[in-house]
From TrEMBL, chains A, B:
This is TetR family transcriptional regulator. Residues 13-22 have a biased composition (Basic and acidic residues). Residues 18-78 form the HTH tetR-type domain. InterPro entries: Homeodomain-like_sf, HTH-type_TetR-like_transc_reg, HTH_TetR, Tet_transcr_reg_TetR-rel_C_sf, TetR_C_16. PANTHER family: HTH-TYPE TRANSCRIPTIONAL REGULATOR RUTR (PTHR30055), TRANSCRIPTIONAL REGULATORY PROTEIN (PTHR30055:SF235).
Length: 201, 201
C-alpha cells in the first residue's frame, strides 16, 4: 500500500521531511477534491497541513505540480486496473474492470482523489491535462495494448466513458435512482457494456 | 426555436425589457460555460451584458435563479430528446437518441449551455440540483415513461451515463483519439449501447 497509510508496520523509520511531504499531499487531496483545482490555493493547502506555503513550493513546486503529485499517488489503485485485463480470460474483462472501478469509487478513502480529478479536470485546462496524462496515457493506453483491434484506444475510451459517466451521475451529481441503487445491480448492467466496447464486433 | 435566436422573423416586435432579459441570459450562458457556477458572479454577468447588477437581480433574482433560467432555455434542444423515443420504433431509439444528442454537442451554439451545466454541476451542489431537476426529472423520467420495464429509470440513467461520459471525455477533457474521432464512428459504437440499456434484457 501507499507510504501514507503503511509506514508504521515493518518499514524502516522515515525522516521528518517524508512525514511533512505526506501531510502536505493528504491536505492537497482533501482541498482539491472538495474545491476543485481552480479554487484550491497553495496557501490553503499549506494552512490545512500546518506548514508554511514556502515549504509546499519547496517540496513540489507549482500548484499544478502539487496537484499531479497528490492525484497520482492517490489514483494508483484505479491506475492498477490494466493488470486486470491480462489477469484472466478476455471475455471476463468487462466484469473484472467494472467491479474493480466501482470498488474504488465505493470506498470513501479512494473515492476522494477520483472526485478531485473529475471536479478539477472539467473546470480547468491544467487539471484536464493531468487527467489526460494519468488516465488516458497510463490507464487507457495500457488497456488498449491488450486488445487486438486497430481501434483499440477508441474502444478503451468508450468503455471508460460508460464508467466515468456512471460514476459522475451516481457519486458526483447524485441522480436518483442511480445514486441509491445497489452497486451489484449497476455492475450487472454496466459490465456487459464495458465488455462489448472492449471485445465486441 | 428559442426566442433568443428566432425573434427577428415573423414575430411581433418585442419590448426593450425582453431584449435586455435576453442579453442578460446570453451573457450568463457565456460566463457559466466558461467559468463554471462557482466562479461566475451576478456582477460579472451584468458587466458582460452591459447592465447594472441590480437589473439582473430584478429580472431573475439570485445567482441560482439566473443559472436555472440561462440553462433551461438553452438546454431546450437537448431536453426535447424524449419525443424521439416515441417518434419511431423502439428498436431504433438508441440510434435516434445518440444521433440527436451528439448533434447538439457538435453544434458550438448548443454545446455552450451543456458545457455550462456539466462544468457547474460537478463542482457545485446548487448547480447539481438544477441538473437533477432539468436532466433527470425532465429528460430521463420522460424517456423512462416510454419503457415498459420496472427498472426503466435506472436504464435511462445508465444510457445517459454512456452519453454524458462520452461527451465529457470528447468535448470537455478532450482525450485522444476520442476527441478527434469522426462523430459517425462514435455514434456507430454508442447507439447500440444506448439501445441495449433502454430495451435490452
Amino acid at each position: 500500500m501507499s507510504d501514507v497509510t503503511g509506514r508504521k508496520r515493518g518499514r524502516p523509520p522515515r525522516t521528518e521531511s517524508a512525514d511533512t511531504r505526506d501531510r502536505i499531499l493528504a491536505a492537497a487531496r482533501e482541498e482539491f477534491s472538495e474545491r476543485g483545482y481552480e479554487k484550491t490555493s497553495v496557501r490553503g493547502i499549506a494552512k490545512a497541513a500546518g506548514v508554511d506555503s514556502a515549504l509546499v513550493h519547496h517540496y513540489f513546486g507549482t500548484k499544478e505540480q502539487v496537484f499531479e503529485a497528490a492525484v497520482e499517488i492517490a489514483a494508483a489503485p484505479a491506475l492498477n486496473a490494466p493488470d486486470l485485463v491480462a489477469d484472466g480470460p478476455l471475455d471476463g474483462v468487462g466484469e473484472r474492470l467494472t467491479r474493480y472501478i466501482f470498488g474504488v469509487w465505493e470506498n470513501p478513502a479512494t473515492r476522494m482523489p477520483l472526485l478531485a480529478i473529475v471536479r478539477s479536470a472539467v473546470t480547468n485546462e491544467t487539471a484536464a491535462a493531468v487527467f489526460r496524462r494519468l488516465v488516458a496515457a497510463q490507464l487507457l493506453r495500457r488497456i488498449a495494448a491488450h486488445l487486438d483491434t486497430p481501434d483499440a484506444e477508441l474502444r478503451a475510451e468508450l468503455a471508460a466513458a460508460q464508467l466515468v459517466g456512471t460514476a459522475m451521475l451516481r457519486y458526483v451529481i447524485k441522480v436518483e435512482p442511480l445514486a441509491s441503487a445497489d452497486v451489484e445491480q449497476i455492475i450487472t448492467r454496466v459490465a456487459p457494456v464495458v465488455q462489448g466496447h472492449l471485445s465486441g464486433p
